[in-house]
Task: inverse folding
């Protein structure tokens, strides 16, 4: 298991103190920066897709994982808008999910298993450090996800088998104009005044 941990997560320290963030770096790595530590989750961008909806930008990545492809999405609202709901409720809506099993949660990091169909679950790491951005990655196998949970000093077990993806698989998020019209995800950001 130790060999797996070293090959799957390359953990290294960086000098500046920064809030948590889940980003694709300049060397095409997907990294979670948390508490002065950067955890490399995957490396090698295979595909990038940009979508723009009213007041909302979405970037979707397929990135090489240890034995599969991880699917990463960064969602950002325009400057005068914010998400109506918290990260878990927003993820349930984005994936048309019916049930969330939370393994770890703090102020802006969530690790959960999300039920997205009758018998299909995905393992998700989500990060939200502001009211108008949400980043999440899914497609971890159960063993990979449990190793990630351990990094947060939490022991846990998984109730369901998480779905893994290959390069040929499509994203399973349900973004569409119709979805966003039926149940908007955003509201005006009252903290920024009324200049929108």
Result:
């Amino acid at each position: 298991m130790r060999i797996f941990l070293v090959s799957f997560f390359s953990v290294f320290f960086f000098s500046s103190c920064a809030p948590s963030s889940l980003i694709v770096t300049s060397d095409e790595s997907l990294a979670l920066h948390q508490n002065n530590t950067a955890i490399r989750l995957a490396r090698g961008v295979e595909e990038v897709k940009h979508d723009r909806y009213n007041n909302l930008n979405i970037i979707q990545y397929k990135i090489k994982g240890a034995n599969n492809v991880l699917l990463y999405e960064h969602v950002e609202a325009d400057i005068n808008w914010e998400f109506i709901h918290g990260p878990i409720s927003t993820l349930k809506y984005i994936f048309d999910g019916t049930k969330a099993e939370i393994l770890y949660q703090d102020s802006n990091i969530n690790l959960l298993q999300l039920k997205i169909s009758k018998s299909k679950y995905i393992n998700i790491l989500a990060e939200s450090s502001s009211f108008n951005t949400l980043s999440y990655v899914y497609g971890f196998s159960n063993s990979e996800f449990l190793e990630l949970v351990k990094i947060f000093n939490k022991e846990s077990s998984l109730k369901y088998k998480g779905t893994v993806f290959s390069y040929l698989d499509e994203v399973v998020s349900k973004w569409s104009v119709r979805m966003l019209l039926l149940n908007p995800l955003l509201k005006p950001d009252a903290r920024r005044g009324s200049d929108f």
User: Anything to note?
Assistant: The longest strand covers residues 121-130. The chain has one domain: 44-189.
